[in-house]
Structure formats: structure tokens, C-alpha cells
Design the sequence.
């Protein structure tokens, strides 16, 4: 491979529908993968348009029960800029804002701040042309307070995931880039509320080291998920991606590191990658995909490990009657967990949102897919006040991979009222891509510390005005690529830190 793949590039697509849904052409749920229970009913779905190319990367639920969603938006993938919007519990858009970053830029993560605002983390620039990690601060009135970049320990970098460390401190993970596109180190660093860097560490057991997700461990540390890959050689021109988990303390010192790789019929898989991690009472869950081939045949993969990274259980699955499945997010749901992602009948078919329920032993409880618009995928999910699941993702609205809208789908919880939710305030624009998978345990080397200069480049940002806008009460995103690892660098990662709560801006 001579180029990186984006997290969303690993997509998939399909046909079967959520049972009990209130959407056109709803049929029985797909349960042929071994799950037996009925899936939660689909209560409503909405798409959100900022420009031609709009993509979701992360979302959080606020203290007042609303939601803030972030990503990228623009007229084409090369002109996207950071995008944030808020919706209420019924999917009605409250406000929307696009932010001028002076060049191609996007947001991969969002956390709430103590002053009622939001801190957004992402990237500015191209992966091959000095890409910079970018932070944006929105105040409680949704105005841009500042825009700042942080110096990478190498030639460039980005922010893939972000969590609050308390007392106005934050921890970010992302990529630190070397001289070539695939020369990538995983990077963790701490910042204060002004984006001044407090500490910094890089990690690189192999040549290409991608990280996609970050979660607090509960004891002051953090667990990180992604994948790692050796450098290509003449003898091995396509080395496999190996799933990678590691834990660090509150200053980034690595506590343990393990890799994980699957096999079928004694043949090792070429693709093993984790897109999301979640801390449990007994250890961690990691979700992603694994496949015998690098670019096709993916199965959704969820792994449980104890507090030191030792594997304790796993599940491989894909939607019934589909060749491809990939998990992008994990969320507690009912008496276990919901896994959300994408399913695809074949690599050339449109993608479908895929959701699967598992219990604490990773046994399947239910599974269902739903295609919205011309193809769709789920990126993350959050719980709702009425014990439902709000799934966020992207929808292909015109058949081409660049004409996309943001998508929100409500599963379970209380039935939606008969009236369609009304519109509320809005701004504009977004677009992105996604990362790739990896699995099989083998400890990785310890991180190499880097110097910790403070944030560079501080500018007050201009942003577009907020505007009123309606939402579309129907189908959502569509992609479909039974392809490979996403360019975790330029266009996005999902994100994915565990969403946190905080005060939401004023209701519109």
C-alpha cells in the first residue's frame, strides 16, 4: 500500500432493516447471524445538511438532554472546514456552525468544558503537506473563542480522540507523522484549557502506528485502541495490520501494550483494527474489524481484555446475508452493549447502518441493518434519557461518495410523537473519512518520550453566522467500500473518545 486509508473508507453496506421501525420499507430484522431477540424499534431518523459534503466524526450528550455533533463540511472533500451542530432529543436541529480554518480542516472529537462551552480537536492541512493538530474553543454562546494548533513531535500530526482529565485539563491522542505518509507514530499529549501542551509521548512498535480511540480507565489512566503495521519489504509488500491496545498513566507513560491478530483455518488475518475502546468494571472492550484479506471480507470484531490487556473473550460477526461488517462504536445499552457500524452485501453495494446487541459475555442478543438514502454508516452512538440509543453517522444522498449528509437514528426508547420535529438554528459544513482495523496479542515496545513545547500558532477564528435551518425527516448517509484502512490522518478518524456530558448552549 502506498497511501493511507481513512477510517470511513473501510465501510460496508447492506439491505435488511431494523424491526419495528417507523421508516419506509421496514421489514423483519436480520437475525441470521445467530442472534435471537428482536432488535429495538427504529423510532425516527433525520439527516442534516450543511454543504455538499457533510460528515460526522463525534458527538456528545449535554447535561440538559440535547446533543452536540461535530465533523467536517464543505462543497468538496478538499475544501471542508470544521462543522458543529446541536439537536434535541427528537432530532430537531437547534443550531449549526461552520468554522473558517483558512485551509482544509476538520474535527474528529468534542468534549464539554467547565464554562458551558466545547473543545473540538482535529486537523488542519493535508497529511502529506505538514498537517497540524487543531483545537477550537466554542463558548457557551457557541462563538469561537480561539483556534490553536499544537506542535507535533515529528513533521506533522492530528487529533483523533479527546477526553477531559478534570480541572480544566484534557488528554488527546492522534498521529505524529514522519517523512513518508506511512511513517506514523501514535501520539498522546495533555493540554490545558488554552491548548498549551503539558506533556507529550509517542509510541511506535512498528512502522505505521494508527490510533483511533481513547477512554479513561477510571484510575487516572487511559486506554488507547488502533492498529499497527510493519514496513513493506520486497519479501512482504503488504504486511498485515495488527490490532493494538495500550494503557498509559496521566502523563502518557505506557503501562502495558498488546497486539491482537485473528486467524481463519490456521491462516492469519491481514486486517485487524480497533476503532473504539470502552472501559468496563473488569477491563476493556475494543471494537473494530478483522478479515483474512486486507481490503475485503471484513467481520465486525469485539474483544474483551482484563486490566493488563490479556484477552478474556471475543466475538466475530457480520450481518445476515452480507459479506462485510465493521464495528465503529461501543455503547452500554440495556443489559449489555450496543455495537454500531456498517454492513455491506458486497464491496460494490451501498452501505447500511448496522447495530448489534451483546451481553456482558459478548453473546449476540440481536442484530439489524438499515440502509438510508443511497447508502449509510454508523460512526458512534449515545444513550438517551428514555433508555434508547441515538446513533450518529453519515448518508450518501446522491449516490456519489462526496455528496453526503449527517445522519441521526433513534433506536428504542419512547415512540416518537406523530408530529415531525421542527427546525431550529443552524450554521454550516462538514466532510470526512475513516480509519482501519487490526487483532492478536503480542506486547509492543514502550513509548518514546518527546519534548513538550507549548501550543503554537494562536489565532482568533472567524466563523460563519448561525442560521435557522430545517431537518430532513428521512434517509441518511451512504458509502460503501469494502476497502482498506482509512487515512487516519487527513480526513478524520472517528473518533472516538468516550463522549462526556456538560452544559449545552442555550436552547434555540
Sequence:
Amino acid at each position: 500500500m502506498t497511501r493511507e486509508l481513512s477510517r470511513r473508507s473501510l465501510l460496508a453496506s447492506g439491505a435488511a432493516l431494523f424491526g419495528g421501525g417507523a421508516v419506509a420499507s421496514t421489514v423483519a430484522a436480520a437475525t441470521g447471524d445467530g442472534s435471537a431477540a428482536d432488535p429495538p424499534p427504529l423510532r425516527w431518523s433525520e439527516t442534516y445538511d450543511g454543504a455538499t459534503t457533510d460528515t460526522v466524526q463525534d458527538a456528545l450528550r449535554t447535561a440538559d438532554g440535547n446533543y452536540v455533533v461535530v465533523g467536517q463540511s464543505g462543497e468538496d472533500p478538499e475544501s471542508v472546514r470544521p462543522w458543529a451542530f446541536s439537536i434535541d432529543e427528537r432530532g430537531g436541529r437547534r443550531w449549526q456552525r461552520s468554522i473558517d480554518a483558512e485551509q482544509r480542516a476538520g474535527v474528529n472529537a468534542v468534549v464539554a468544558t467547565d464554562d458551558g462551552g466545547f473543545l473540538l480537536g482535529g486537523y488542519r492541512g493535508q497529511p502529506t503537506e505538514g498537517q497540524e493538530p487543531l483545537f477550537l474553543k466554542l463558548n457557551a454562546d457557541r462563538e469561537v473563542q480561539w483556534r490553536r494548533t499544537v506542535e507535533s513531535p515529528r513533521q506533522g500530526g492530528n487529533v483523533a480522540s479527546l477526553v477531559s482529565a478534570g480541572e480544566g485539563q484534557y488528554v488527546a491522542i492522534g498521529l505524529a507523522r514522519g517523512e513518508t505518509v506511512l511513517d506514523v507514530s501514535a501520539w498522546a499529549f495533555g493540554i490545558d484549557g488554552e491548548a498549551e501542551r503539558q506533556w507529550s509521548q509517542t509510541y511506535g512498535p512498528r512502522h505505521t502506528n494508527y490510533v483511533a480511540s481513547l477512554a479513561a480507565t477510571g484510575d487516572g489512566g487511559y486506554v488507547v485502541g488502533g492498529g499497527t503495521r510493519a514496513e513493506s519489504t520486497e519479501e512482504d509488500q503488504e504486511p498485515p495490520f495488527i490490532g493494538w491496545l495500550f494503557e498509559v498513566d496521566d502523563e502518557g507513560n505506557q503501562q502495558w501494550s498488546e497486539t491482537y491478530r485473528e486467524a481463519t483455518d490456521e491462516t492469519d488475518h491481514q486486517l485487524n483494527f480497533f476503532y473504539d475502546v470502552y472501559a468496563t468494571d473488569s477491563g476493556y472492550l475494543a471494537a473494530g474489524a478483522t478479515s483474512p484479506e486486507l481490503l475485503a471480507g471484513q467481520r465486525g470484531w469485539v474483544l474483551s481484555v482484563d486490566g493488563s490487556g490479556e484477552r478474556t473473550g471475543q466475538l466475530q460477526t457480520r450481518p445476515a446475508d452480507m459479506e462485510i461488517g465493521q464495528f465503529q462504536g461501543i455503547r452500554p445499552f440495556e443489559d449489555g452493549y450496543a455495537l454500531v457500524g456498517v454492513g455491506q452485501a458486497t464491496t460494490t453495494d451501498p452501505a447500511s447502518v448496522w447495530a448489534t446487541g451483546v451481553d456482558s459475555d459478548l453473546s449476540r442478543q440481536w442484530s439489524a441493518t438499515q440502509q438510508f438514502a443511497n447508502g449509510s454508516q454508523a460512526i458512534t452512538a449515545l444513550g438517551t434519557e428514555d433508555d434508547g440509543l441515538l446513533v450518529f453517522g453519515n448518508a450518501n444522498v446522491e449516490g456519489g461518495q462526496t455528496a453526503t449528509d449527517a445522519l441521526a437514528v433513534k433506536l428504542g426508547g419512547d415512540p416518537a410523537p406523530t408530529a415531525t420535529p421542527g427546525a431550529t438554528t443552524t450554521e454550516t459544513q462538514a466532510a470526512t473519512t475513516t480509519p482501519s482495523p487490526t487483532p492478536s496479542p503480542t506486547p509492543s515496545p514502550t513509548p518514546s518520550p518527546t519534548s513538550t513545547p507549548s501550543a503554537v500558532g494562536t489565532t482568533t477564528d472567524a466563523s460563519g453566522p448561525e442560521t435557522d435551518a430545517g431537518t430532513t425527516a428521512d434517509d441518511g448517509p451512504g458509502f460503501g467500500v469494502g476497502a482498506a484502512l482509512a487515512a487516519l490522518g487527513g480526513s478524520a478518524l472517528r473518533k472516538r473518545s468516550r463522549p462526556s456530558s456538560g452544559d449545552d448552549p442555550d436552547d434555540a
In short: The first strand starts at residue 42 and ends at 48. The radius of gyration is 20 Å.
